[in-house]
Amino acid sequence: MFDIPCVIFAGGKSSRMGEDKSLLPFGTFNTLAEFQLSRLSKIFKTVYISCKEKSKFNFQADFIEDIKTDLTYAPTAGFIAIFEHLTSESFFAISVDSPFIGENEIEKIVLADNADADATIAKTPNAIQPMCGIYHRSTSEKFSYMSKENSHKLGFLLKSSNTVFVEFEDEKPFLNLNHPHEYQEALQLLKPILK
């Protein structure tokens, strides 16, 4: 198990899904958030859930509620709140809607990380994956600045920071459940895993 804290980001707007994806049923769990919490708790010693309002969840977990801003769905608010809450130098960020990023991918990122990096992030042939990787406390001030400037693009922060990009050839583990058809695809992919 990894010592670095893991934070599941579950505070997004889910506008493309049409409903809160963190609350969608998944596998044998009532919600995708519970599925993620259960499996990631077998990989990390401590797992938190970053969200807007913990009252929407009806299960026990260590929640970190976002700072209250006008732009309540911007990820920057979550990062600021996490750095205020945690005492660790860094944490592993993963999105609630990435249920197939497994221990192999996580281990590769953890092993690639180093103390001089601002962030260590997964990169696939199609894109960088800003919601899968390690963020160091050295990015904390940048997130505060971005929030004040109403700039919320994680890609910009990563490109302007000392970021280690960890290359992955296979896109499949990084499937994001943004749209209803991707959710249905994920449910089909999950069936053989549950057997």
Short description:
The protein is an alpha/beta fold and 195 residues long. The chain has helices at 32-40, 75-85, 103-112, 140-148, 154-159, 180-194, and strands spanning 6-9, 47-51, 62-65, 90-95, 119-123, 128-136, 163-167. The two termini are 25 Å apart.
Structure description:
The structure is a single chain. The protein has helices spanning 32-40, 75-85, 103-112, 140-148, 154-159, 180-194; strands spanning 6-9, 47-51, 62-65, 90-95, 119-123, 128-136, 163-167. By secondary structure, the chain is an alpha/beta fold. A seven-stranded mixed β-sheet has the order 3-2-1-4-6-5-7. Strand 1 (6-9), helix 1 (32-40) and strand 2 form a beta-alpha-beta unit. Helix 2 packs across helix 4 (140-148). The longest helix is centred in the last third of the chain and has 15 residues, at 180-194. The two termini are 25 Å apart. The mean pLDDT is 88.
Strand order of the largest sheet: 3-2-1-4-6-5-7
Question: What class would the helix/strand composition place it in?
Answer: alpha/beta
H/E topology pattern: EHEEHEHEEHHEH
Question: Helical region count?
Answer: 6
Topology, pairings included?
Elements: E1 6-9, H1 32-40, E2 47-51, E3 62-65, H2 75-85, E4 90-95, H3 103-112, E5 119-123, E6 128-136, H4 140-148, H5 154-159, E7 163-167, H6 180-194
Parallel strand pairs: 1-2, 1-4, 2-3, 5-7
Antiparallel strand pairs: 4-6, 5-6
Helix pairs in contact: 2-4
